[in-house]
Q: What sequence folds into this?
C-alpha cells in the first residue's frame, strides 16, 4: 500500500492539517495520486461544522464502496471521524482508519498498524497535550503558507461541534512558531496566515508567556515577511493590542475577520458567545479609529433557536452600522452534543432560508457600495494566479479582496515568465459585489 489520495473538506485548519498529513505520508515513502481510483489508500479529511458538510462525506464514502473489494484501504480523518468515532465502521464497514485531528501526532504509528493488515485502526484520543507539529508539511501553495498557532477550542458556543471534534486549546510555543515562520521566509514565502479556532486566546506555554498581539508583532518583524494574516478572532478575546500591532507593523495585513454571529444580545447570550452587541461594537470602533484602514469581515448565523423577528432585525441593523467588507452567512444547523439541541423554539427551515436570503441581499448591496469606493485607488496585490477564461491575473489585496487585473507587459504566463508570487500596484478601474478589477500601473506612464 504505497499510493494515497486525499480529499479535504471544510476550513483552512483542515486544509493545513491535510498538508501535514501529506508531508507525513510522503516521508513514510508513500506517493500521492490525483484520483481516488488510482490510490491504494484513500483518505477523506472531513468537516462536521454543519449537517450538510457531514452528509457530503458519507455520500463520498458510499460512492467508493464498490472499490473496497478491490483492495483499497479507506480512512476517515478530521471532525466527522472524531464526532462519529467507531460508529463510522458500522455506517461504512469498508473504512479501516478513523482518526481525529488531535491524534495526528500518532499517524506514523497508525500507518504501521494499517500496513500490518489491521482492519480497524482508530486514533480518537482528545486528551493529547501535543499540537500536531510536524517537520514534514507538504505545502500546496509556494507563496502563501499556513501556520497553526493554537489547536482546539475552550469556548462552548451553544451551536458548535468544534470543542468536541478538536478538543481543548493547546498553544504552540512562540519559539516554534517564529522558527517555522523564519524558515518559511528563508524558503521564499512572503505571506503567512496564522491559524486557530480562536487565535486571540493564544498564550505561549513557555516562560515568556507571549499573548497573541506579541506573537503577531514577532512574526510581522521577520525579515522577508511581507504579509501576515490571522484567523479566526473571537470578539470576547479580541484586545486593543492587536490593532496597535497592526497599526505599527506594515507587514500585518489590514484585515480582521471577527465573527459576530448575531446582532441581538439576547441571541448572543443564548449562543454563549460571552459578549454583548455593545461590546462587539466597541471592538468595531477600535478598528474604525485605527491609523490604518482595517477591512472587517464576519460570520452570521440566521435562525438560531429563539431568534424572533426583532432579534433578526437587530442583526440587519448591525450590518448597516458596521458595513462589513464581506461575510459568510449560515442557516443554523443542529449539531450532535451541542447545548442548542436542547433549546425550544427551533426555527422552521423555510424561515431560516428566508432570513438567509434577506441577509445575503442586504450584504450584496453593502458590498456594491463599499467596493465602488475602491475605484480610482491604487492597491498592492499579491498575485495568486491567472484566469485563462478572462485573460486576467488574479491578485489579492491586503484587505483580502480579489483584484483581477491585466498587465500591459506580461499579458499571460509564458515560459519562465509569470507574475504569480509577485507584488504589484494595481489601479482599480471596476468593482462588482465580490471582486475588483483593474490594470497594473507599472507600465502606465499617466500615473508616473
Ligand atoms: N472559531 C471560529 C469562531 O469562533 O467564529 C470559527 C468556527 S466555525 C469553523 C466557522 C463558522 O461556522 C462560525 O463562525 C459560525 O458562523 C458557523 N457555524 C458553526 N457552527 C454552526 C452551526 N451549528 N450552524 C450554522 N453555522 C455554524
Ligand atoms: Fe466553535 Fe465558538 Fe470555539 Fe469558534 S469559539 S470554534 S464557534 S466553540
A:
Amino acid at each position: 500500500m504505497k499510493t494515497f489520495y486525499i480529499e479535504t473538506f471544510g476550513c483552512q485548519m483542515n486544509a493545513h492539517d491535510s498538508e501535514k498529513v501529506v508531508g507525513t505520508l510522503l516521508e513514510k515513502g508513500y506517493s500521492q495520486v490525483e484520483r481516488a481510483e488510482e490510490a491504494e489508500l484513500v483518505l477523506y479529511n472531513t468537516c462536521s461544522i454543519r449537517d450538510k458538510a457531514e452528509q457530503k462525506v458519507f455520500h463520498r464514502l458510499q460512492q467508493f464502496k464498490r472499490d473496497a473489494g478491490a483492495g483499497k484501504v479507506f480512512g476517515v480523518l478530521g471532525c466527522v471521524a472524531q464526532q462519529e468515532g467507531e460508529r463510522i465502521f458500522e455506517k461504512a464497514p469498508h473504512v479501516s482508519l478513523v482518526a481525529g485531528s488531535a491524534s495526528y501526532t500518532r499517524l506514523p504509528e497508525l500507518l504501521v498498524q494499517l500496513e500490518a493488515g489491521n482492519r480497524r485502526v482508530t486514533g480518537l484520543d482528545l486528551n493529547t497535550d501535543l499540537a500536531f507539529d510536524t517537520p514534514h508539511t507538504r505545502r500546496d501553495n509556494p507563496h502563501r503558507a499556513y501556520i497553526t498557532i493554537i489547536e482546539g477550542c475552550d469556548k462552548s458556543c451553544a451551536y458548535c461541534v468544534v470543542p468536541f471534534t478538536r478538543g481543548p486549546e493547546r498553544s504552540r510555543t512562540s519559539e516554534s512558531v517564529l522558527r517555522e515562520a523564519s524558515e518559511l521566509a528563508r524558503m521564499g514565502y512572503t505571506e503567512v496566515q496564522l491559524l486557530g479556532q480562536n487565535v486571540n486566546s493564544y498564550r505561549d506555554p513557555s516562560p515568556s508567556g507571549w499573548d497573541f498581539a506579541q506573537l503577531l508583532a514577532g512574526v510581522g518583524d521577520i525579515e522577508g515577511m511581507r504579509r501576515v494574516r490571522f484567523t479566526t478572532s473571537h470578539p470576547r478575546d479580541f484586545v486593543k493590542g492587536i490593532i496597535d500591532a497592526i497599526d505599527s507593523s506594515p507587514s500585518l495585513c489590514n484585515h480582521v475577520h471577527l465573527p459576530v454571529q448575531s446582532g441581538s444580545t439576547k441571541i448572543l447570550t443564548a449562543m454563549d458567545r460571552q459578549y454583548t452587541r455593545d461590546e462587539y461594537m466597541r471592538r468595531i470602533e477600535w478598528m474604525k479609529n485605527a491609523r490604518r484602514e482595517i477591512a472587517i469581515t464576519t460570520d452570521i448565523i440566521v435562525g438560531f433557536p429563539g431568534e424572533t423577528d426583532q432579534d433578526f432585525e437587530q442583526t440587519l441593523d448591525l450590518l448597516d452600522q458596521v458595513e462589513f467588507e464581506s461575510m459568510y452567512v449560515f442557516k443554523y444547523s443542529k449539531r450532535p452534543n451541542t447545548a442548542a439541541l436542547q433549546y425550544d423554539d427551533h426555527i422552521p427551515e423555510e424561515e431560516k432560508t428566508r432570513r438567509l436570503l434577506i441577509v445575503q441581499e442586504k450584504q450584496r448591496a453593502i458590498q456594491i457600495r463599499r467596493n465602488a469606493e475602491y475605484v480610482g485607488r491604487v492597491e498592492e496585490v499579491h498575485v495568486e494566479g491567472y484566469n485563462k477564461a478572462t485573460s486576467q491575473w488574479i491578485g489579492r489585496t491586503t484587505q483580502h479582496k480579489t483584484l483581477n487585473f491585466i498587465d500591459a507587459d506580461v499579458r499571460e504566463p509564458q515560459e519562465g515568465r509569470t507574475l504569480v508570487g509577485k507584488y504589484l500596484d494595481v489601479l482599480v478601474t471596476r468593482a462588482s459585489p465580490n471582486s475588483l478589477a483593474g490594470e497594473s500601473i507599472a507600465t502606465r506612464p499617466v500615473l508616473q
Remarks:
- The pocket of S-adenosylmethionine (ligand 1) is lined by residues 11, 49-50, 159-160, 162, 197-198, 232, 234, 259, 261, 299, 301, 330, 332-333, 335 (CB under 6 Å).
- Confidence is low (pLDDT under 50) at residues 444-448.
